[in-house]
Specification:
binds iron/sulfur cluster; single chain; two-stranded antiparallel ribbon; TIM Barrel; alpha/beta; elongated; 13 helices; DNA polymerase, domain 1; disordered C terminus
Length: 370
Amino acid sequence: MLHPIERLPEDWAETLARWGEPRYRAAQVFKWIHARGVLDPDAMTDLPKRLRARLAEEGLQPTMEVALHQRAEDGTQKLLLQMGDGRAVESVLIPQGSSGAEDPVGGDEPEDGRPVTQCISTQVGCAMGCVFCASGMAGLKRQMSAAEIVSQLFVGRGLVDEGDRLRNVVFMGMGEPLHNYDAVSRALRLMFHPDGLGFGTRRVTVSTSGLIPEIARLGEDFGGKVQLAISLHVPDDERRSALMPINRRYPLSDLMKALRRYPLPKRRRITIEYTLVAGYNDELADADRLADLLKGMSAKVNLIPMNPVPDNPLGPPPWSVVEAFHDRLWDRGVSTFVRRRKGDDIAAACGQLVLAGEKKKIRVKVPVVS
Ligand code: SF4
């Protein structure tokens, strides 16, 4: 049975019909939950008492609570969110800085305060095992439900600074979103609904390590309107497979074909995420290979100097190397941006708070650099 938070208005219409309530109440209930963020049926003042009591019986209550809340000097807020079974995931609120690099849409000035981007999780841990990633080190513990995925936004909306506005969402927290496709696609439908959170499709980015069948499904289900980001990181199969095991199943040539088939609307681009790891994927020859892969594709590259992860010997290259890589891509005609790391003082890479909480030493297999 669907959790009350993950019911769309049409699901509520069915539920209410079973309860003998008029169907028009479906929009009211949905708005209370998703537009106003009210999860206490007693506060839903325009609903009759009997319906409020029925909603309480149905288990309408928050799915998570803030177990840890850290704030960095740059305004980034990192949350550790604990769910009903005691498992925890992370979410990060990132206010747009003066560089504007974090606004995935960009360009237009906000009419009401600083735009804030929330990075959300989709799984507890992750099965993909990317060696540079704290979430990957811990393995997959369980999938998150659609109710838990959108609940992160309810929490985030309540924590943005006064005058700021939660404007963008990136599925780049713990987990591989497309490995939890059904819950993620339902969460997307909930987020886009105009009577609910009302996010525009351009303002929501799903990031994947490259699950080709689900990329096609996402393109088909949402007409290509969901912004797609690919964690590419290495421009050749041998080294990418060492860093990201998923590449063995879906090698780069197949992934590039799948991206070219993604039904992007006009003037939209796929984002290519490229984490620069010192001495591994940061040579100019790598920039050239990446430019070759992206030839003729509507794409932009985000360069991300690697976040240092405790107990992981890999790290970011010097700034001069980042700049040279960036410049080479521009010279090759590829739109490229450097994403500043935010919240360094609070360990803002995905999975780091959870790992710190587990106080585990994790062995990292460093890939052989050929
Ligand atoms: S980078 Fe993403 S896909 Fe890879 S292990 Fe981490 S969370 Fe999973």
